[in-house]
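Notebook p. 47: complex prediction with cobalt (II) ion.
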Amino acid sequence: MKTLFEGNRRWSERMREADPGFFTRLMQQQTPRYLWIGCADSRGAATEIVDMMPGEVFVHRNLANQVLHADLNCLSVMQFAIDGLKVRHVLVVGHYGCGGVRAALENLRVGLADNWFRHVQDIRNRHQDFLDALPDDTSRLDALCELNVLEQALNACRTTVVQDAWERGQTVEVHGLVYGLADGLLQDLRMSATSLEQAEQAHRQALEAVRDRYLARAAAAAAQGAAVP
Ligand code: CO
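Predicted complex, structure tokens below:
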């Protein structure tokens, strides 16, 4: 705990030195443009990853960055951020090497959370043939991380919160992104939508793009393997 409070004091001092009015402004209001729905993984720290300051990103995180239809916690955060704070972008952010997605993929029993990961298993089951066609565990896991993002981004579009915002003409754009632990880079999975129609089309196209990319990579690896004497 000592490390925690010492770190906090250092940070607070550094912030005040760099910008004496920072905390006063922050106290008066927050005007984030982004709602980040990410994984609870300790390596997926939202604000740091996009090099932003406190006040710029509204954050909800849970295991395996899921947007489930009846999850009142996630839905309430979305409602607060969209109706109240008028965020412009809803980012559903997965990450490669996700432990939750791995547990779902490999049927690992971790405890209560198995029930939460069950939703990711539903996605796995829907794409079983594609995943089976991939040559190794790493590519299967990476691919399922991406498929999960696309599914959760579509779920976000289907919530009453986003539907109502679109209905009343509010500009809210939903995106699916994936974060690489290996290089710290965010990748856009091109599942962006400002209407349900667009969401369904973007979701279909993004799914196809994921399948094409992984299958092409697998074919290239196989060809290279065959060429080695
Ligand atoms: Co994760």
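Notes: The first helix runs from residue 2 to 18. The pocket of cobalt (II) ion is lined by residues 39, 41, 64, 95, 98-100 (CB under 6 Å).
Next step: compare against the earlier run before touching the bench.
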